[in-house]
C-alpha cells in the first residue's frame, strides 16, 4: 500500500458518494447498489482466495444462507428487522465456523471440492426442505427496514445504506489484511512450513480467516435479502459461487480493489450489456480469457503493471535511472 | 433380492458412465496439475457434435469418433495457446477454463438452439437383455463394457508403454522428469488432447442415456470432480473405483433414502474428505 | 481502464444511454416489456415464447386498437435476481405500459412484490404456480395459461372413468410445478375411486432415471409422469429403454410440442392433458398452427401458444379501452375482463382471480404424416382452475405440495 492507493481510496469514496447525484436514474442507482453487494461478497471471498491461498467454490453458501435466515425470521417467524438480521449474521458466522472446520482438513483442489460440496448440500436443503424454505419458489414478502425513520424503499436511500456497509467492509478487510494477523494469513499461504517452524498454528490462522470471510459474506447476504426482498435456491447455487470467484480472480486476487472491479465487470455485463448483446454469456467468457491472456494476475494489478511499463518507457526516453529500466525488464519477463 | 441386483446393475452402469466422464479429467490433472473446469463443457460439446454427425447421416460409431476428434483439437488449441503459459498459476487456470466453459455453453446454445434432443442409440444395442426374471437395457451393459475396456487400455498405455512411463514419471515428480530429459512440452499437449478426446467421445456415448441438453455441462462437471476427488487425484485406478462407488451410492441411495437425493453425491464426499483428505485411494493432494 | 473511478464512468455512460427514449407519450406507441430467457438452461422455452409473441404482433401489423405496439425484450437468464433487475429496467427506465412474462414460476414470484408496488399490469405467458391466482392473487396479474393442476384435474377423472385405471404410480419432477401437477391429478383420480400406490420424486437435474424406473411397482395399471423442460425426453427414452410396457400418462409438458418434435417412438401412445394441443381441429387453431409452421418450421407448444395468447389478451383488453392505457385501473379491469370466443385454445374467459377458464383437451401422441402430434381424444369444456370444487373450500384446503395427501373425499 502506497500513497498512490491512498489517493485512489479518496477518489473511490468521493465517486461512490456522488453516484446517485451524478446518474439520477433510479434504475442505475439500484444497479450500483447491487454492485456494492456483490463487491462485499467478492471482497470477503478474496480474503480466502487472494490472501489465504484457499480457492473456495462455495462462497454463495454465506450469501444464500444469510438471506434465507433473514427473510425467514422477519416474514415467517415474526422477528423484528434488527433482531432478524443479527441472528442471521450470528448463524451464518456459526455456519462458517463449521464449514471452515470441515473444509480446512484439505487444501488445494480438495479444499475447493469440500467447499463446493458443502455449498451443494446447502442448495439441496433449500430446494428440498420446502416447509422452511419454500422450495424452488423461494421466500418473498420481505419488507426493507426503516432505520431511524428512513425509508429504504427509496433507491437512493438504499444505495447509501449499502454504501455504509460497503465502506465498513472495505475498511474492515483492509485493516485485517494489514494487521499482524493478516500477515500471518499471507504467510500461511506462501510459506506454511516456515510459519509452522516459527510456532504459528497455520490451521487456526486459516480458520480465523475463513470465519471472518464468512462474516462479511453474511453481511452481503443480509443486504441481498433487503435488496431483492426475495430469496430462492438460485442464491445458493454453484453458478453464484463460480461467478463470485471469477469476480475476485478477474479483478485481481490478493488486491484490495480487484474484487470491486470484478464485481462491476460481472454485474454490468449481466444486467446492462445483456440488453444490447444477446450473446453476453459468450462475451463474459471471452473477457475472462482475454484477461488471462493479457493480465493473468487480474485487471487491477495488470493495469498497474502496464501503467508502470508505459511510465517507465517514458522516463527511460527522458533518460531515467537504470533501476527503473531493470524493473521494467523484470516485469516484462514475468508477463511473457 | 431382485431389487439389490437390479439397483446394483444400475449403479454399475452409471458408475461406468462416470468413469468415462472423469478419466480424462483425472489424467490431465494428474500430470499437468490443471483442474480443467471446462471438462463438462467438453463433454456437452462432444455430444452436440456427435448429434450433428448423426443428423447428417453418419452412424453412431463415426459420431463418437467425430465428437472425440473435434474436442481433441479444441483441447490441443487451448493447451497450446493458453494453458501452456499458465503453469503454476492455478487462479488464472480457474478463470480461463471457466471462461472457456462459458463460451462453449453459450456457443452450443447458439448453434444448436437449446432444444433438448435425444441421441439415437445404434439399432444393434437397442432393447433389453433378460436373464432369470431380470430385465436390463443392452446399451447400459455396453457402457459397462466400454468403461472396462477403456480402463484396461489406459492402464496398458500408462504402465506398459514408453509414453506411459514418461507420464508416470511426470506425475510422480515433474522436476525430476525434466532433469531426466523428458520433454514435457510434447507430453502436455498429448495428454491434454487425449483427456479432451475422452470427454468428447464420452459425451456422445452418454447421449443415448442422458440425451443432449443445454445445462448438461454444469450437471456433469460436479460429478466428474466428485469422482476424481473421492478416488484420489491423479490415480486412474482410484478414479475407476471412485466412479463405481459413486455409481452404487447414487443408485442405492436414491432408492433407499429418497429424502437425501439432493445430497447423495456430496454428503459422502464431505465425510470421506474430512476423514481422509487425500481421497479413498489418493497418495496426495496438491 | 477499469480502475475504481471506472465504476463511475461506466455507470454515467449507461445512464446517458438509458435516458434516451424515456417518457411515454399519450399517442405514442404502447410499450410492452417482454421478460424472456435467452441464455442458460431455459433458453429453448424463452425462444419459443419470443416466437409466439412476434407472430401475434406481426399478425396485428404491429398495431392494436389503433396504437403502435413497441416490444422491448429483456433476457432474465432464468435467474430471479436478474429477473428483478430487468423488470426494474423495463418499468423505471423504459416506462413500459404492460409486462408480458416471465417464463418460470420462481421468476414470477421474485417480482410479485415489486409488481404490487409499482402497479404495472403483467400478463403471464408461462408461469403456472397455483398461488399466483389462488391464495396470493396479485391485483395486477393475469395469466394467459393454465395453472399447474388445471389440466390435470380432468386427466385424473379421465384415467379413472374412461380408461378404467385403478392403481397408478406417479413420477414427477421434484419442484413446485411437479408437486402441483401430481397433487391435482391425485385428488381427482382418488375422488373417482382410483388409488395412488407410489410417488417418486427425482430431483430436477437427475442424470439417470434408471434407479427410479426400476422401482416402479409392477402391479400398477399405468404410470403418471409429470416432467418439465427436457426431462420428458430423458425419462421417456430411458423408460422404454428399460423395456417398460405399462402405459404412460403424461403432464402437458411431458410431451409438449416443443420437445415432441425431437422425440421418437418412445412417446407414441402417451396420453396427456393440456389447455392446448397443436392437434385441436378448429379453423382458428389450424390457421395458427399453419402460421407457426411457416414462420418457424415446427408445431407450437406450451411456450409459443402461451406468449401468443398473452399477446391476444393484451389486444382484447386494449380494444376494450380503445387503446387508452393512461388509466391503469381501467386497463387492468379490461385485462381481467378478457373474453375471447375464438382462439387457438378455443373460447376463453377470466375468473375472479385473474385465471382463464378454458377447454381442457385429453391428448394422445400419434404419428401423422411422419411427425408426432398430440391428437385430441376428448375435450372437457370450460374448466376452471378449481375444477368442480367450490373455490372457497378449495382455497381453505391443503396446498398442493410434495406431501399432499388429499383426494377421495367424494367417492
Automatic annotation (TrEMBL), chain A:
What keywords tag this UniProt record? Cell membrane, Membrane, Transmembrane, Transmembrane helix
Q: Segment Disordered: which positions?
A: 316-336
Location in the cell reads: Cell membrane
User: According to Swiss-Prot or TrEMBL, what is its membrane topology?
Assistant: Multi-pass membrane protein
GO molecular function list: branched-chain amino acid transmembrane transporter activity
Gene Ontology cellular component annotations, sorted alphabetically: plasma membrane
UniProt keyword Glycoprotein, yes or no: no
Matching InterPro entries: ABC_transp_permease (IPR001851), LivM-like (IPR043428)
Keyword Transmembrane attached? yes
Transmembrane regions listed in the UniProt entry? 7-29, 35-54, 61-79, 85-104, 111-130, 157-177, 198-226, 246-269, 276-295
Q: Which PANTHER family match?
A: ABC TRANSPORTER ATP-BINDING PROTEIN, HIGH-AFFINITY BRANCHED-CHAIN AMINO ACID TRANSPORT SYSTEM PERMEASE
Q: What is this protein called?
A: Branched-chain amino acid ABC transporter permease
TrEMBL record, chain B:
The family note in this entry says: Belongs to the binding-protein-dependent transport system permease family. LivHM subfamily.
Which species is this UniProt entry from?
Answer: Pararhizobium mangrovi
Q: Which Pfam families match?
A: BPD_transp_2
Q: Name one GO cellular component term.
A: plasma membrane
Listed transmembrane segments: 12-30, 37-54, 60-82, 94-112, 139-158, 186-211, 223-249, 256-275
Q: Which GO terms describe its biological process?
A: amino acid transport
Look up and give the membrane topology term: Multi-pass membrane protein
**Protein name per Swiss-Prot or TrEMBL:** Branched-chain amino acid ABC transporter permease
Sorted alphabetically, the keyword list is:
Amino-acid transport, Cell membrane, Membrane, Transmembrane, Transmembrane helix, Transport
Q: Can you provide one Gene Ontology molecular function annotated for this UniProt record?
A: transmembrane transporter activity
Where does the protein end up? Cell membrane
The domain of life is Bacteria
InterPro entries assigned to the protein according to its UniProt record, in alphabetical order: ABC_transp_permease, BCAA_transport_permease
TrEMBL record, chain C:
Tell me the InterPro entries matching this sequence.
BCAA_transport, Leu-bd, Peripla_BP_I
Checking Gene3D superfamilies in the record gives: 3.40.50.2300
Q: Which SUPFAM superfamilies match?
A: Periplasmic binding protein-like I (SSF53822)
Q: Which residues form the Leucine-binding protein domain?
A: 29-368
What start and end residues bound the annotated signal peptide? Answer: 1-24
Sorted keywords for this record are: Amino-acid transport, Signal, Transport
Q: Which family does it belong to?
A: Belongs to the leucine-binding protein family.
Give the protein's recorded name: ABC transporter substrate-binding protein
